[in-house]
Hints:
This protein is mostly helical. The chain has helices spanning about 5-50, 55-65, 70-90, 100-135, 140-145, 150-190, 195-205, 205-235, 240-270. Helix 3 (about 70-90) runs parallel beside helix 6 (about 150-190). The chain is globular.
Amino acid sequence: MLPMVNNETVLRIPVAFMEVVGRHFLSFIHVVGGISMLAIHTVRVLFSYKLEWREVLRQFVVIGNKSFSIVFLISFFTGLVIALQLSVGLGRFGLTLYVGQIVGLAIFRELGPVLTALMIAARVGSGIAAELGSMVVTEQVLAIEAMGAHPIQKLVVPRVLVTLIATPLLTVMADIVGVIGGMLITVEEAGVTPRFYIDQVSNTLLMDDFVSGIIKAAFFGFFISIIACYQGLNTRGGTEGVGRQTTKAVVYSSITIFVSDFFLTKLILYF
Length: 271
């Protein structure tokens, strides 16, 4: 005999589901609105207040210089893997001579800026969120306000500006290193000379391919730093809150990179 199901119970299930969906949607809107407002205030403060050059130089060391090795390593092995896979795949059709062209386009247009941004989000974004979150928990941000200084000027603007500049620079390095890594495998697997590989890459790539990757890298750097600063400045709940906000900063930045990559690519191709 089948059990009786109360109609009220049946109706309660979709209502509870809609409540959860609505709660998450409102939370998403709140985060997007907060990040947008912080971005607007940051741009306004950048052109309204004196820039803290000492802090900017310190952030260049923390964000740019210390990210060089990990971006170098990731880009080099990415070039190796892409060239190896293409050598095997195109080799089935006797097209291994075109490996250099595809490697160059893939790295300069997509893999270079995207992988660089992901590494910066993992290393720099998490560091910014943790540092600012710790300052909020220990009330250092309140102390800055009590001294009459602007927290966005002192804490947000230097980090956003440096990340905005460092990400395209690291992307240029990643493009070059990735192409060199692809050359090592292509020379070995396809049996071409280094000169032939370089000629393929240089004759295939256009200035638009290089510029599109740099433009996307600049946007990625801005998104990463703004999201990380927002999460850090909105830390609640002590040290556990710092961990939660750091995780959110990395996750939100990574999602934003992939979503914005599609729209930026579409926009750049349109123009």
